[in-house]
Amino acid sequence: MRIESSSLQFTSSHQAQSRYQRNEQLHVSLPDRSTGHMTELSYSSQKSVETAQLMTYNELRSQAGNPALAVKADRLSAQVEAANERNQTAANDASAGISHSAEDGDILVLSAEDRLRISLIQSLIRNLTGKDIEFSIIDLRLPKQSTVEAQPVQPTQPVTATIQPLEVPVQASLDYQVSESFYQQEQTAFQATGQVTSTDGKQIQIDISVNMSRELLQHREFSLQLGGALKDPLVISFDGKAAELSQERFEFDLTLDGQQELIPKLAGNAAFLALDRNGDAHINDGSELFGATTGDGFAELAEHDDDGNGWIDENDAIFEHLQLWLKPGEGNSQQLISLKDAGLGAIYLGNADTPFTLNGSLGEERLGVIRSSGIYLSEQGKAGLIQQVDLSV
Fold it and tell me: Residue ranges of region Disordered (predicted)?
């Protein structure tokens, strides 16, 4: 082909977008050293950087700066660990305490700080004299005041001191959650129109176009938990109210470490969503709940959506095997009921973040945190709540 003449017009367009978002949540429970009451501290921070240019994750993250709550979390984590060490020391001292016969006078109870001072004094004397000196706490007595005249000493029977069970201090805890998302989008369009004439007089009409586009979405999460760690199974409520927790606890291996943790009982009309994997008619540990091992019960449940319609319903093989664990921790036997017998028709897999702290009646102990919420439908078409609840262990 030989071209004699041409008249062409090119048009093109380009659009780009880059976005970085970071959300931080920090929740701390610390005991007041003077009163022993728990202080709840909650912080949140959001940062977003968006540009109409192509930029990488590292470039945008650098513009956003360091996580705002990271330094605070690091500082408070040291306080949480120190508080729990003090509590553990106090508990160890109490469990190793020596009972003495009761005489006129109360034995002075030494604090952990006093015991540390005595230990330092012992070490100092040992270094100066080369001799070990033992201090007897038995000699530290507070005499009772009495207006009764002294009586002749009579033979007495040994008096057995009754040791009352000590209340274990509530454990300090820290929960730091960071989520990052990076989005990059680029779109380019090209079009060529016109006419070309060849030397043999042939005219060729030109009209060609192409559209190119791409998108990238990345999501990253980081969490730090100290003290009373949180594990989050799915909880279904039957009365339309949000999940509630009781201050009473029961033994259950939620974390799959072979140890029985003390977890809060469910309050109100609610149940754990469960799957009896080994068919022994018993929920044995956290592997038979949803979310206790991965931290995302909705995602675990979504793996069983056979037809991909966004619901767990009778079209999915798992539906007939799902059960509700009613009143966990009540009695020796477990109350398990199928979804069909409970009147549940389908569970929606979509959910929204709904962070909400569940404290004890006096607000001093964090029992758990509601992380996210979704819905289910009853056989009668009524909507109910299903929530991912982090339980303190």
Answer: 1-22
Say which amino acid occupies 33. R
- Domain boundaries defined on the chain: 3-84+172-222, 229-392
Q: What is the pLDDT of residues 198-215, one digit of tens each?
A: 999 999 999 999 899 999
Does the structure show a pLDDT above 90 at 275? yes
Which H or E run contains 274? strand 270-275
Q: Which residue has 């509700």 as its token pair? A: 324
Mean predicted lDDT score pLDDT of the chain: 80
Query: Contact 153/55 with Cβ under 8 angstroms?
Result: no
Return the structure tokens found at 361: 């009646």
| Chain centre to alpha carbon of residue 321 | 27
Tens of pLDDT, residues 213-272: 999 999 888 777 676 555 679 999 988 889 889 888 898 888 777 888 888 899 889 999
CA 276 – CA 283 distance, rounded (Å): 6
Please, which residues have CB within 8 angstroms of residue 25's CB and are 6 or more apart in sequence? 42, 43, 44, 175, 176, 177, 178, 355
Taking alpha carbons only, the member of 273, 265, 268 closest to residue 242 is 268
Q: Say how far apart CA 106 and CA 98 lie, in whole Å.
A: 14
